[in-house]
User: Fold these one by one.
Assistant:
Number 1:
Amino acid sequence: MTDKAHILSRAFEDRIFVGVAAAVALAAVVVALFPGLSGYRVNIAGQLACFALLALSLDLIWGYAGILSLGHGLFFAIGGYVIGMHLLEHAVATTGVTPDIVQFMGWKALPDWWGPLESFPVALVAALGVSFAVAFVFGWVSFRSRVGGVYFAIITQALVYVAMLLMFRNDTGFGGNNGMTGFQTIFGAPFQTPGVAKGLAATSLLVLFAALVACRLLMIGRFGRLLVATRDDETRLRSLGYETLRLKLGVWCLSAVLAAIAGLLYVPQVGIINPRVLSPELSLEIAVWCAIGGRGRLAGAVIGAVLVNAIKFSLSATMPELWPFVLAGLVILVALIFPNGLLDIGRWRPTWISRPDVLQPGDAKP
Amino acid sequence: MTRFIRKAAAIVLAIAFMAAPALALDRAAIVAQACGGPGSMTEAAAALTAGVATASKDDAAWAATLSGAAIERTLKCGSPPVIAAPAGARDAATLAPATSADGTSPLLSLKNRPLFETARAAATLFSGVTQGERGAALSALERRAGSLPPELFEKAADAETDVGLKERILGVGQAALLNSPDVSKRISAIERISVSADRRSLTQVAGLKTDPAYATDQAFKAAVDAGVASIERRLQISNALNTLYNGLSFASILFMASAGLAIIFGLMGVINLAQGEFIMIGAYVTYAVQEVLRAAAPDLLDWYLIVAIPIVFLATAGVGVFLEATLVRRLYTRPLMTLLATWAVSLLIVNLVRVGVGTQNLQFVTPSWMSGGHLLMGDFIVTWNRLFAIVFAAATLVLTWVVLKRTPLGLNIRAVTQNRAMAGCLGIATRRVDMMAFGLGSGLAGLAGLALCPIYNVNPQMGSNFIVDSFMVVVLGGVGTLAGTVIASLGVGQINVLIEPLYGAVAAKVIVLLMIIAFLQWRPDGLFAVKGRRK
Amino acid sequence: MTVAILVEALTVEFGRFRAIDDLSLAIDYGEVRAVIGPNGAGKTTLLDVISGVSRAKTGRILFDEKLELTRASEAQIARSGVRRKFQKPSVFEALTVRDNVEIGLGGAIDAVARERVDKTLETVGLAAEAGRLAGELAHGQKQWLEIAMVVVSEPKVLMLDEPVAGLTDEETERTSALIRALKSPERAVIVVEHDMDFVETVADRVTVLHEGRTLFEGSMARARADARVVDVYLGR
Amino acid sequence: MSKFDRRSFLMTTAGLAAGAALPLAAPPLIRSARAAGPVKLGCLFSSSGTMANLEGRMNFVAKMAADEINAAGGVNGSTIEVVTSDPASDWPLYAQIGRQMLAETKVAALFGCWTSVSRKSVLPVVEQNDGLLFYPLHFEGDENSKNVVYVNSPPASSVLPAVDYLMSPDGVEAKRFFMIGSDYVWPRTINKQLKGYWKSKGIEESAWKEEYVPFSFSNFQTIVNQIRAFADAPGGKCVVVLTVVGSSIPDFMREFANQGISSSDVPVLGLDMVEADLEGLDTAKMVGHLNCWAYLQQAKGDANVKFLKSWSDYVTKTGAPFKKDVAIDPMVSTYDAVHLWAMAAKKAGSFDVPEVRKAFDGLSFDCPSGYKIGMTAENNYVSRGVFIGSVNETQGFDVLWQSPDTPKPVPMSQY
């Protein structure tokens, strides 16, 4: 892509990044220590952190390696489902209450093989392991046969759609359309305990902060530069002796694991996991968040996710009719005026609308 | 089913026996019964069916009118009971003009509805004015022939003037004798039934294996076995035809939904996520055409689908051109941004339609020529609306092919698809070609919407159902080849229909999508890739 | 002396189109070989197959008389010392000039490596631009940057696809000086180019390809005199 | 980090940090309504997404009921204000908005959800906040939360009577059953209970067949072929128990009619089928198919006349984008729900949930269905009448059968 506009001054980028990271850290402190916050707000902050983490994970592969996944909801869902299974097992173990899912699935008890997930470390390892394994297998096969660009996007979309159809089936055995709900306790504490919401939200914000810093360090290092090189010209990089398959696979798996962590943190805060998170629309929306904030800057993904979801939360309750128009307008606006996201505002000159592009052979790259 | 029919038949026969001596129908009594509770309505229907064979032609006509009125709820049980008609109410018993048209209409219970339908058909068989009417009545009776008195058909055949129809009536009468005490009549009934074989007749004929004669009478046994074998063979063929037809009809929908996408994607490498919404717009424009015709030229209403074709194409192509000129054109170097922008456009269109028109399913008049279907053989039904979609898809395919191969625009499109830079150097206005191609692709999507009107629900959400499927078809076929899209649609449609009865609809979809994903790992460029140097 | 690149009975097809048809040729260490021919002769395809971007249908290519390039991946080929500059300048535009060259060098960046990068930048005349983003460079500078990315790793076989396309006369002059400087007994240089004057200044020998086959092999002066070559270039 | 102006860096950082933290500390967007002034009721019905056509109209019915109550002087000296939202057919968003309405808007009760899954996602929210959710749909039963009022019927008190009718001599003496449903908990639970019921009646397992399709499935060709084959097989009269939902209903009915099957051949009992599903269909070929609800538009009685007129007037007045001459059961259930809540609040003299809940015992209301619906202290279920409707030519349902009284609701099925 001969997209010079993509290149921001580094100083500006650094400033934005530090600002966003500081804001996340500050929010974590406020959520954890400020007593006057309503549970609702705490919960919103925690959810926004999860969405931001999810957007961050997509930014790693789309923004840096130029691989657009329209199926990232799959990894988010893996994290969510595993923690859901853990919470159900945990609820049975601590309260003895039979969850709804047992009854409407027509079971006698939760399936035996869920048993080990009662331990949180096992669940954590399982969530990360499964998302890693799925990402590895799919990524290895796809990258090896050099499926890329728009094709990769379409195939990942089909993949998440397949997963959604599967999970909607009752016979698949994860609660079908209802999914899992009715979680009672977490780490032994009932969900109603005021500290639980705060703890979850603060943890999410801290994990987001840690992920931001870690990804930043990784991306300004050699690995990050090689990823950018892959995005700019993969053939060139390969003919310089780099196995781009490994690079892409590495960042793809990393991104999948981050998305799974986001799901892991998200589900206890909303109290339900069902196949809806596997809908192609959600996965598309993750890309929208990144695009609105600005790709390939980490901070942009966080800003985009927080902005879009905060607007969504407030508008869908106060002006439900308006919300879809606002979102559509925002995306079109960004696509036309800030081709690289709202972070471009810093260097925006009033040309109003970008001029028509001229397509060159070989330009068909993200 | 059979037990129910037998019971009904028993009642019919019993009453037929009682009513046999009377040559005229006791109109007043029957009307009173028809205005009674469910039980007495059953008796009214039985009396009508039993009586028509011996009644006068006038009485038979009255019986047809009365049972029709009961079915259509134009029978008003006031005092006296009348039949409401647009020309004015008539007395239910005498059919003389009546003054009042008050009274409630009894609602046919599930059980009584088929009885009255039978009564109406039997009466029409005797009193129908045209041969067509009587033929239709006979077809209606065919399925329930076993529950009717055999002499009904004999009498009807006697009275029938048309030789062909007379033959048919006798045939049906023969088939009705499957449970006749006379073995030879049973055998001829078996032979008769085995000719027009469907699953119901298999049940009937196979049921004769429990007949005592099956064990004793060799000829009867042979007839039953031969009948069963012949029906089973025909069923196998008709099942295969059904599967083919279903697959073809699904494939035609897939093709319609993805043809436009294939052109746009192939030419510009642009993913148009608003393609489904173009389909939706096409359907809404079709609706608008229908409403305009309804107001302006009601005579043409039956042909609104045909009238709408050019209008729908031009309207959606116009929207496509507008979208290309205002948005897509500015994003050509960033295909993934186009993806998001067109997604936003689709969101916008859906919500504009939702707010502007509403969320309800649109009501389409089903044209008389497209309603229902025709039982071709055995269990194989050709439904007209699906046939319309298949024919429409085939016509679209031919026309698109002609446009691409035989017109200057098509030549330009192919040139730009293959080498944009070179085409530009040769003086082709690539920008203009892009716009026209985008218009063509959008117009095709609009036509898909039109073809879907008689099959699917038309509402603002309908477009989203097609996105994943149509993308997979385009990618599987190989970008930029119409032939690939056709083959991929046919393959996906057929495989889906083959798997569905085995593992269910969800699993079929899942398996097909996974197969496509796996196939694309093996051949990332699809079935019919335009090969060239790797960039 | 061993042969650097040995092409044996190579055939490459794209669909029904045969880009290279039963081609055999040998390129020695120490020489600068130019591959010329009209459009569609198979020049770039030849480089593609040697560097592993495209796959051969039949035949094989041996590097250093040991490594069979037709079986190796692009990265393996590059790491073994066969490197290539593309027709269209391919640099990583979102990275700095220095980053680009460091990626070309590969491995850990220590003091020795840094020095080598500096020296290479010096050679191609981009030392002053080291901190700029590659996307901001002029066309000619991008060409040199790409050459720098390729040569910094001291390749044994260096392939240059149209290194002076779109350059001014002065830039072309500098480029040919650069290529002459890169000539070494341990290295084979393959140049694909249309500019005949340029080819004459840098090449030891030329191979003329036509419709995927070798039409002529020898010095540039003799090529200019060869009737068949003239025919192919001018006859149609 | 390269060179840049230190002061502008600090300012940007501080600005962004404050921007992120501000929403957490800022005053609520929607002010608390706990003080005097109107009492708020929240609606959780989607006006966009797949459920929009069905759920959207409920927002207006709730407002209409509130207007009626306000016109009669309000409740406990307050007028009612109905707060609507758009969960966009997105299940987690129901929970999200529910939480917001309870915690921030401080609504006195929630009215909402159509699909079971949306209810299940709101359930933990109302339980954690001790709120009240009035759920206006018939559902799979087997749930009994003190925070949910189940305004409509569980299967044991609605579906089983309808199936009984089909199996009786008054019906068609059905012996065999083809169950086709959307693949989720409501159809599966209904079918599970039906199978248990049939087993208890000594019906063989070979007499039924079950198929499930995904949500918004539309290509029913193959399945209708299967139904034809199943119906023609020996063993007695076959009926179809249809539990597909949403847009699959009209798609199924159209294909069924097109393949030439009429209600006199194989009747369909559409358990989720309402008038709105028939919009746009040529119902002349579907006459006689059945549905089963606690209200049908053709119900007799003054209460229904009054309700239909109010709805028609309301649509005319507000320009709501729905048909003014179509009323479906969940609309009436929502209408009932608002009135039941108002009666309970009046009886309790308070809007506090525990007080209101205590007042449920012995409430009764003249439902537009013509029955006097009622609640007991036993559970939060409402006892209602049962109708079996029969499709007519004009895209509506005629009342074919109705229960003599209001059967006592059975939350937990025995099957």
Note: Chain B has 22 helices and five strands.
Number 2:
Amino acid sequence: MPLYYDDDQAMLRDSASAFMKTEAPTTHFREFRDRNCSDGFSHDLWKQFAEMGFSGMLIPEDQGGLGMGHVEAGIVLEEIGRNLSPSPFLTTSVIGVEALKAADAATRGKWLPGIIAGETVIGIAVDEGAKHRPEQIAMTAERSGNGFRLTGKKQFVVQGAAADLLIVAARTAGAPGETDGLTLFAVDKDAAHLSMEAARLVDSSMGAHVNFDGVEVDADAVIGDVDNGWAVLTRMLDAGRIGAASEAIGVGAAAMDMTVDYLKQRKQFGRLIGEFQALQHRAAHLYAEMEVARAAVLKAQQLLDAGDPKAELMIAVAKAKAGQAVSLAVKEGVQMHGGIGMTDEYDIGLYMKRDRALAEFLGDANFHADRVARLQGY
Amino acid sequence: MPLYYDDDQAMLRDSASAFMKTEAPTTHFREFRDRNCSDGFSHDLWKQFAEMGFSGMLIPEDQGGLGMGHVEAGIVLEEIGRNLSPSPFLTTSVIGVEALKAADAATRGKWLPGIIAGETVIGIAVDEGAKHRPEQIAMTAERSGNGFRLTGKKQFVVQGAAADLLIVAARTAGAPGETDGLTLFAVDKDAAHLSMEAARLVDSSMGAHVNFDGVEVDADAVIGDVDNGWAVLTRMLDAGRIGAASEAIGVGAAAMDMTVDYLKQRKQFGRLIGEFQALQHRAAHLYAEMEVARAAVLKAQQLLDAGDPKAELMIAVAKAKAGQAVSLAVKEGVQMHGGIGMTDEYDIGLYMKRDRALAEFLGDANFHADRVARLQGY
Amino acid sequence: MSDLETFRAETRVWLEANCPPEMREPVRDETDACWGGRNPTYKSPAQKLWMDRMAEKGWTVPDWPKPYGGGGLSPAESKILREEMAKLGCRSPLSSFGIWMLGPALLKFGTEAQKIHYLNQIAKGEIRWCQGYSEPGSGSDLVSLQTFGEDKGDHWIVNGQKIWTSYADKADWIFCLVRTDKHDKYKGISFLLFDMATPGVTTKPIKLISGNSPFCETFFDNVPVPKDQIVGELNRGWDVAKYLLGHEREMISGAGNAPVGSLGALHKELMAQDPLLRAEMAKLDVDTLAFRAMGEKFIDEMKAGKGHPAQPNMMKYFGTELNKRRAELVMAAGGSDALEWESDGSGGGAKPRQWLRTKANSIEGGTSEVMLNVIAKRILDLPGA
Amino acid sequence: MSDLETFRAETRVWLEANCPPEMREPVRDETDACWGGRNPTYKSPAQKLWMDRMAEKGWTVPDWPKPYGGGGLSPAESKILREEMAKLGCRSPLSSFGIWMLGPALLKFGTEAQKIHYLNQIAKGEIRWCQGYSEPGSGSDLVSLQTFGEDKGDHWIVNGQKIWTSYADKADWIFCLVRTDKHDKYKGISFLLFDMATPGVTTKPIKLISGNSPFCETFFDNVPVPKDQIVGELNRGWDVAKYLLGHEREMISGAGNAPVGSLGALHKELMAQDPLLRAEMAKLDVDTLAFRAMGEKFIDEMKAGKGHPAQPNMMKYFGTELNKRRAELVMAAGGSDALEWESDGSGGGAKPRQWLRTKANSIEGGTSEVMLNVIAKRILDLPGA
């Protein structure tokens, strides 16, 4: 498969781009931010995502979705990133759907229609500390009656406050640090003994701390196999990681574009600042970094869609590279905008904040570079 | 003490500078290199070092030396670095002398006069693998009769081929990885069962592999205490590390100066290339890095001379920072010289090679940054 | 005991007796500091006590002459005071653009009357100053400024607009660059002082990405400024401005600041789990400790009249870039905790707000790019415009 | 099975049967490759066998048309051949500036007669070419070149000096930029081909810091060049040169090269002891694997006529900087072993010499600075000279 978008994919990009620019540009983001909306996104917009076919795009056709792949999801996510469009698309339609693919028919039947309709929102409850360390999960799920009893705390549950369904990783056996003994659960947000404290994050998205104080779930809440959840958890996380990388690429591309534009407008010392060679070289270097990061992301998505075992390594490469390149893009963006880059009035700072949250989500560049080293055997 | 040279130190710098420029400039270096001299330096020059008072500058006055400190040794080393002057000054007059300070009067009486006279050369035999890992020393020194029997291999023994005396670190107890159980020995190069294989290094200096195949030494060859050599070894190595950092600063400063000069001479596109802002900014950044590295080196030397316990941390900082900044200086130097920077005819490449060897000597920038982290408790 | 040793011993005793425990904590951020002014606000009684005691000894400005409200200390004594304050962790009693910026300029360019009047006010924290330099079209290219002072005999009438005036909405007076001659770009600027309560002065805070508003837009609509409120000669204000910028850059560089601890050491457990972050922390420690040595060397050289006069530009460049890097690593070590902007556990998002605040360091007081230009031209003597 | 699948299966079988085991090792350095020429040297019989077998199939240049000595493969087939060769580790049978640089230029600008004549020679490795571009005063500013060809009716008489002519002392022919009109900087250059054995051509190897001499100074003293040995139109050689530079940059970038293994994985034990080096190795792996994806994307886009035409400049910039970084880490991992320049264990100082060789990567074929200029101007459309 050649490493560029085919005609269908290019069409999808055009329509996703037009949609986000029209329906959810940065002004839309600002509106929701300034209104202090507790969900952090518009449920109306989420319905429009459904009308566009985005919300169920990864769901197989025989289950009512479009049966598309991660390249296509990445196309939508990149446009989301470019426009800072607030939505539960990544957690719901990418990560949540990837997890539900491993669930039984009853569970799928219960949740997929709502996702396709843009009515259901999913939150992902994996992290327990400030840094993403999935093998360190300590939260317990003890056998109890016909099901399990979940006890522990989760944090950085993005869109947790608005979620209807939580995908929860808990330990049914083993000890923190072990990859064996983990199990994935689909937990209704309204379950008894489940409480939540929402926190507005730096990018105005909503994260939540979730407290499981002996939450009882039935056995059919299990996704995949008991004790052997690491593989399905990794698949779910990897879908989220490469999705976050795509969204980050959109953030970085928009930051770079608006910065290059600014270089062509702002005058100092009687010249456009884009004439200054030092800035030209930095912009050109940034362009190279962004292009390489973009290639890594697309390659990883193609491998993932092809079921290639090399996808895992390439996803780690892509998340690490996108993290580093996009961080450079927003830093250079703010610095080259000078004083106005520091103001809330200009958009460039919003991109810096969004990058910060995306970079941290499901493992930062250091986490993934370390993972690359481990996968290479050192 | 203020962090700049006092009047005496400034005078020393002027005389060391004039001496190296006149007696041992890069043309002198090239002469010795092209002649394929097996020692890698001129014994006549080493005598001149003695006449200048340099060779015994760190030896206490009551033992015939000048009783100066590491700030002063650093002044001489920086000028050596600037001119690529080949000499056994660092291994003999700095590292060797620092070790001999812990030796008994007989040992000192045997070797110090020759050092002061510029007749004796010392080699330092610590490393056993390709990387500097002193706590990993495996070479054994077993008790044997009235003394010890040394068995093992050393490498990167700079000036080893020309040395009269080797300072050897060996294990009298404990296992590799432990700092306890090490002992320092003064070993005559002509001892039986000691063999050597010299290798010309990238910077045309001579390193040696030394083979100790059951070398017998008397008990009075021990420097310091048996089994408790780590402290004196560290002191000796730290003297060498900060000395190497000073020499590196000279290498970097010369590389930077000749590069800035070149920027003022070479024309392309009808302009001096020093007018191009991208190169200006890179040169200015390099200047900042070099200034900061220089300050760290001087601070470490002052702390060392004052017997301040913070010296150990600051020496690690200085070796790490000098390693990084000087590496930048020579890389930028070669790149900004363009094609001619790649030719053997121009000096800039010689500085890149010298930096490479100095950076590796007694721990590279990564080794010392890691040491900083450990000393800070993480 | 030498005089200096005696001074050190006495200073330590005095600080131990007089610095309240609450004032031995580092200043958390700009809002945690004492800024003085006509209507001063103190975060605690201890803050006021510490300010009063230090001002009484002249130690808000230890090396200014005593007649101007300073402590009259020699360079060596100043260094000892700094060292002893650092050892106890004593914070600076007063944060003030008057001390950092205007004061040094007045000491060099002011008349004796101006020095007596303004410097004493600054030393005692009675007047809070702000800076009127940048304009919307004149950022890095400061000398293109357009704010104009029309000569009206015994006063000027000033019209124009400034931007990035720090805390202008809280300041009592402004030191301001005003064009008094439209014909010469450099030699047509004067350095004026005036009261922000003068009719015609209005300010409008600028909301920043950190959510705070430490800067304002400031508008001058026919503001009268008496002729004796000029520092230096008419139309030679650029000399004053450049001199002052050097001090501002020195200040922003963090040279001579209290020591900053190892960030890696604060996160030992994480360091064991995150080897790549640990590597960055180690390199940060190397650069932090090396730059601290550079700060000490820089101050020693400046006090001794050694060192290149353009060196503050290097300090400003390196110090602010390092500070940004540190803030990035604070965020990385903080993980998702440090993303929280509004939550109970996050202190109102202190970490992310501080992180965003540092991004201004390499812009305010001359961008890193301008610093590099100056180093290239004035220190390395590279050719070109 | 689709046609492509069949092609893949047949190719694999053929390679397995025909590629000698010795030719399934990576090329160690430039001297280890087969360069062809009038007086070819082969390091082993296997090298000659591999060269002959591949040339017979036209697979020294698989995507050139068959009449010109190529394999006539489609882009998809070429990619399959590349992939299958990579899987078996087959090295390229022939290293040749004719293939990488002159060939593509001839395919685009040559006459049919030139194509038949020169391309077949190149494909079969019969003529070894060198490049005459840079001059002592014309490096990055190539278009300022001074070598002059005087019109003598049916031939030119060329006088001047070139520098950085790769292996000019070993080359049979040169493709050379020559000024044929002194009045127009750009439109006064012609692209000439001539035999290095022509009287008046002399070469002088340049000793490099690596100790090797892959480049020469080349002098032309009244060298006659027949008029049919021009590529493209008279005085329009700059168009040919620019096109060729794009291919050179693509080649130097390493795009499409055989995969490069993980350097960290080669030093597992050291990685456990040297956490900071391990961190750099991890980041190198990230960039290496990401750039490999970029190389694949770049080639796919180029073959499909997509992608920005100036993209080779980006590839050249990133690829050569990455290669230098890799060489630095080879040195760091090698420690004092890798410092040895002349010793038994060091293979004649292979590592340090290769390290120094990489420093030329970001200079030859257009410096990194020129690449960044081109990206800024042609891709980002930034203003200015």
Note: Chain C touches chain B through 45 residues (CB under 8 Å).
